[in-house]
Amino acid sequence: MDKKREYLAIVAVLAVVYFGTAKLGLRFALVHPSATPLWAPTGIALAAFLIFGFRVWPGAFLGAFFANLTTAGSVLTSMGIATGNTLEGVAGCYLVMRFARGQQAFERAQDILKFTFLAGMVSTTISATVGVTTLSLGGFADWTQYGSIWRTWWLGDWVGALLVTPLILLWRENPRLNWTREQIIELALLFLGLFLTAWVVFGGRFHSEVKNYPLEYLCIPFLIWAAFRFGRRKAATATCLLAAIAIWGTLQGYGPFSREALNTSLLLVQSFVGIVAVMSLILAAEVSERKRADERVQQLVATDPLTGLANYRQLIDTVELEIKRYGRSGRSFAILLLDLDGLKKINDTHGHLVGSRALCRVADILKAHCRQVDTPARFGGDEFAVVLPDTASAQAQQIAARIRERIASDEESPPISVAVGSAIYPHDGESIEKLLSAADQALYGMKRPSAGPTSPQGRQPERRTRK
Questions:
Q1: 3-state SS of 113-155?
Q2: 437-to-306, 440, 461, 464 alpha-carbon distances in Å
Q3: Would you say residue 36 lies in a domain?
Q4: Is 263 within 8 Å of 37 (Cβ atoms)?
Q5: Do the Cβ atoms of 35 and 149 come closer than 8 Å?
Q6: What is the pLDDT of residues 370-402, one digit of tens each?
Q7: Rounded Cα distance, 453 and 440, in Å
Q8: Does one domain contain both 235 and 371?
Q9: Which domain holds residue 356?
Q10: 251: which residues sit within 8 A by CB, 6+ positions away?
Q11: Does the pLDDT at position 432 exceed 70?
């Protein structure tokens, strides 16, 4: 019952929002009462279908039906137009989900281009064609005006999809605002600069001086700024702000797109808005994808590919940072070295896949039972290390005992165990080499009682190098 009420609530909200934005857009219908170049409902319906699925189609249908019924035409023509609007959203949703990764369509440039073509250009022809044909057949539109009405209808739907759908989906993807003070200041400067520039270009104060110059392109650097520095969501938001100012100025008769025919002016500004919307989204997606690739490379450089722990290079870097931190704070740290017992025997008996799994089992336990400030790492081969900041000798011994106990109690087969050695900085060494050597000596001291005749009395255990 709760799911049914939730579904009805979603349909009702979609219908109300669709109806309200449709009536607002139809206020600017100039070539025909039912055709406007400003049509946000296309983007709203498409976003709703992508988020909630095709099942919410009645919301779009009802919103479109009542919006047209209260504007012009008859019940039959309003039903025909509503059917075209609904099919437009359904087709756009299907094509985007099938070919452009659905709600993730704005993560990659190639998917944005697919979205632009499939949802912006292809599916919108359904609404324009069905709508204009319905009006013409019903006697509410002159067949001689079919082309001009169709172009206005289609362009309004296209820009609505390109502006509104990305804005809704990207804000829904991550609604939290985790901004630093520096980011807030930079964002304020960005949007203030965009607002002032757009006001100069599309406002009335300097219209007589600049109306014959293509100064609308002065706004593009701010969209590039948003894309490079803040990603897709801020780029989509900045584009919508620019669109709002540009449309407002054009409606007032200002800006470089102002013409004698207001509908022509709106078509020109909508074309500009659609182009910069696609450009800024693609640029932001490329930047985001490049950042993800860089992060992935950095992760591969610092991470052991088998276990997912820090690798030897990252281990050394962490120890160096802890040594520098000790020079500032005087707080010591510990390092543990762990050696997996009998890895060769596990490989010979059970195979190398089981041996690799044994290494991963140790790594999983280290990740699960180390503190957030600790750094577990794969030292090499069957050896692991853990850097423990702000840790004294007694604490290091307790942690080592706990790790050994957790590994020994692991119920997965075959059973595994580890030997652990610890060293404290600077007590056991004031350099990385001496510290690791001290931990290694302690580790072999733990293994020595079971070493038997292979460790002659009085002989120092041989230092093992990183594998």
A1: HHHHHHHHHHCHHHHHHHHHHHHHHCCCCCHHHHHHHHHHHHH
A2: 25, 5, 11, 9
A3: yes
A4: yes
A5: yes
A6: 888 999 999 888 999 999 999 888 898 898 899
A7: 20
A8: no
A9: 312-454
A10: 28, 262, 266
A11: yes
Alpha helices in 303-385 (DSSP H): 312-329, 343-350, 352-369
Find out whether 216 and 246 touch, Cβ atoms under 8 Å.
yes
Residue 161 structure tokens: 């999809």
Could you tell me if 283 and 229 are in contact, meaning their C-beta atoms sit under 8 angstroms apart? no
What integer is the mean pLDDT of 187-206? 92
Give the containing element (helix H, strand E) for 340.
Answer: strand 333-340
The tokens of 333 are what? 């740290």
What is the 8-class DSSP label of residue 415? P
| Domain CATH code at residue 77 | 1.10.1760
Question: How many Å apart are CA 416 and CA 339, to the nearest integer?
Answer: 11
Alpha-carbon distance of 290 to 223, in angstroms, equals 18
Supply the DSSP string of 392-409, one letter for each residue: -HHHHHHHHHHHHHHHHT
Q: Which of 312, 418, 419 is nearest to 362 (CA)?
A: 418
Contact between 164 and 124 (Cβ < 8 Å) = no
Distance CA 384, CA 394 (A): 20
Of 89, 84, 80, nearest in space to 128 by CA: 84
pTM, 2 dp: 0.78
Angle at 84 between CA 82 and CA 87, to 5 degrees: 105
